[in-house]
Write a structure and sequence with these properties.
Blueprint: E1 18-20, H1 26-37, E2 42-44, E3 58-60, H2 69-76, E4 81-85, H3 93-106, E5 111-117, H4 127-141, E6 145-151, H5 157-160, E7 167-170, E8 176-177, H6 182-197, E9 208-211, E10 217-218, H7 219-230, E11 235-238, H8 241-248, H9 255-270, H10 279-284, H11 291-297
Parallel strand pairs: 1-2, 1-4, 2-3, 4-5, 5-6, 6-9, 7-11
Antiparallel strand pairs: 8-10
Helix pairs in contact: 1-6, 2-3, 3-4, 7-11, 8-9
Length: about 300
């Protein structure tokens, strides 16, 4: 039994409330800030209340893990729209997602905008993309309006996947990936959310948007770009599946997690990440961010690759 009080604070009860999950994170936090600047009443949900931003017109809900149906019902009561950022990867993620969706429907949430993944399918090479397909299927079957935002790999992940030794390694072959910036995802999400909360515009209902960068590149090309911006040699080392599992064994992660890491590269090799969509510019009115532009704007993303004396 969850005895947390219901959310309280400055929300305008006469305006549609958007509940934003993961509001302390990279995507949810950006979306919450943009909605608050637009004057939308925002309900902030997050695993760690101390990480939730303080925003005008926003109120923090009591902690509500996705898998706790009662806590989610309390947190979502009175909300019009749920912006659902996917839970952290785990063997139970689909169950957590479906519990959260069921809680939203139970308390009368009218609309769910779900952050899914590019190429979500029951047989996707990237194992975590399968979780997204099952979540999408559950939302489709629910009595709720919905929009799916299928984002590609994050641009921030490209330098993060590169070791301090200057090597980007993985079984991606010569495949391509149209990685996308967090800011572009947030801008696209807010465009979808505002279309309904401001004008009862339902044109995004039932639509799936692929959110990608402007160009699909190989990891070898990504390494070259990292080399240009860092002034050092950065290389891509293609691995076999066996080599990929062996090189990641040092982290002591569970088998399902390592499989997710490895298959993300394999999905690049199969072409499942090569999609280039116009959804970001169409929704936001500005071009999608390229890898080169992202690196120029976010030097901290590759700080670990800079030479130090």
């Amino acid at each position: 039994m969850n005895n947390n009080p219901p959310p309280t604070g400055p929300e305008n009860p006469g305006a549609p409330i958007v509940a934003v999950t993961g509001a302390g994170g990279a995507v949810g936090g950006r979306v919450a800030r943009r909605l608050a600047r637009a004057g939308v009443p925002v309900r902030l949900l997050g695993r760690d209340p101390s990480r939730l931003p303080e925003l005008p017109g926003a109120v923090a809900a009591p902690p509500a893990p996705y898998g706790d149906g009662e806590a989610m019902r309390r947190a979502l009561a009175g909300a019009h729209t749920l912006f659902l950022v996917s839970a952290h990867e785990s063997p139970y993620r689909v169950r957590e997602h479906t519990t959260a969706v069921d809680a939203a429907v139970a308390v009368g949430v009218e609309r769910i905008v779900y952050v899914s993944f590019l190429g979500a399918a029951p047989n996707a090479t990237f194992t975590f993309a399968r979780d997204h397909w099952h979540t999408e299927a559950h939302i489709r079957a629910a009595d709720v309006r919905h929009t799916f935002l299928r984002d590609s790999l994050y641009l921030a992940g490209i330098p993060a996947m590169t070791g301090a030794d200057g090597v980007l390694r993985g079984p991606a072959g010569d495949g391509r990936v149209a990685a996308v910036a967090h800011d572009d995802i947030a801008d696209a999400a807010v465009a979808v959310l505002l279309a309904d909360t401001e004008s009862d515009d339902t044109r995004h209902d039932g639509i799936t948007y692929d959110l990608t960068g402007p160009k699909a590149f190989t990891l070898a090309e990504a390494a070259e770009e990292l080399g240009r911006v860092t002034g050092r040699t950065v290389t891509y080392l293609p691995e076999t599946r066996e080599e990929a599992y062996a090189s990641r064994a040092q982290y002591g992660a569970e088998d399902w997690e390592v499989a997710g890491w490895v298959t993300s590269y394999e999905a690049i090799a199969t072409g499942e990440m090569a999609t280039v969509s116009e959804a970001v510019p169409d929704l936001t009115g500005h071009p999608a961010t390229s890898l080169a532009a992202f690196l120029r704007e976010h030097p901290d993303s590759y700080r670990h690759l800079l030479k130090t004396d």
